[in-house]
Amino acid sequence: MKKRSQLADQIRSAKPIVGPWMSIPHPIVAEALAQTGVDFLLLDGEHAPVPPYVLGTLLPSVELYELPVIYRVCANRTELIKAALDHGVAGVMVPMISSPGEAESAVAAAKYAPLGKRGVGAWRASNYYVDEAAYMATANTLTSIILQIETKEAMQALDEIAAVPGVDALYVGPADLAMSMGLKHGADGALHPAFLDACARVADAARKNGIAAGIDVASLEYVRAYRDMGFSILTYGADFNFILSGGREAQRSLKAMLV
After folding, report:
1. Which of 130, 155, 156, 207 is deepest in the core (most CB within 10 A)?
2. Which positions fall inside the HpcH/HpaI aldolase/citrate lyase domain (predicted)?
């Protein structure tokens, strides 16, 4: 419960929080990332081999350090959202939300009645039902729902999506949003005036509706611009990137000393 409350409070405070992506489904990776000084860990179930059923083996390693975990489901499907929450994640990220109806479906899957249609059975989240009453009494308030804005259709319905009750944050997926807008993926798209305007619109819609805005940071050069727009949830880097960049730098340093 502390982890869920921590994440919900941080998101609603609009103060900046940062976290990396985790794509390697192994407890050792989870435990190592949890010690890097981040505010949350984002487990990727959409573009990485992290299905909901492995959360039971990953979450204990992160919980050793009382670090909140957000899980990105593969798709906006009730069974995926429900499974992640029943395992005990503090929040879910739902990709490719393009309409208020899709936003409402995501929220309904994550909330208990009367706010939604989540089924009762939070086996691990409720400490194997030992704390079921306390969990269910607070789950609707303390479980964070983050919706990804990644399409031009979403941009056309931005205010309506942001206004859906139960949504805690809008999160820009830069690569997909840029491509949906007909822009190149990468630095050219990320710096295109039309893309920057879209990002500002997402942050503004979130602010007007009293929710947070998040974005993935491809380069540290973009951070100040994103903060000035109003983004407060920032993801940067991934486990495999850290291995590759750290390993390459270590080998370059070693080889340089042998010349």
Report:
1. 155
2. 21-240
- 3-class DSSP state for residue 215? strand
Catalytic residue (choose from 47, 87, 185, 192):
47
pLDDT tens, 83-129? 999 999 999 999 999 999 999 999 999 999 999 999 999 999 999 99
Residue 143 has pLDDT above 70, yes or no: yes
- Please state whether beta strands 69-72 and 169-172 pair in parallel, antiparallel, or not at all (unpaired): unpaired
Q: What is the mean pLDDT of the chain?
A: 95
**47 labelled catalytic:** yes
Q: What are all long-range contacts of 176-185, with beta carbons under 8 Å and residues at least 24 apart?
A: 176/96, 176/150, 176/151, 177/149, 177/150, 177/151, 177/152, 180/150, 180/151, 180/152, 180/153, 181/152, 181/155
Query: Whole-prediction pTM value?
Result: 0.95
- Helical segments of the chain, H only: 2-13, 27-33, 55-63, 78-87, 100-110, 132-142, 152-156, 158-162, 174-180, 187-190, 193-208, 223-229, 239-257
Is pLDDT at 186 greater than 80 in this prediction?
no
Q: What is the pLDDT of residue 103?
A: 98
- Dihedrals φ, ψ of 28, to 5°? -65, -40
What tokens were used for 229?
């727009």
User: In whole angstroms, what separates CA 110 from the centre of its chain?
Assistant: 14
* 23 close to 48: Cβ distance less than 8 angstroms: yes
**Separation between Cα atoms, residue 211 and residue 14, nearest integer Å:** 8
| Residue listed under structure tokens 């390459």 | 248
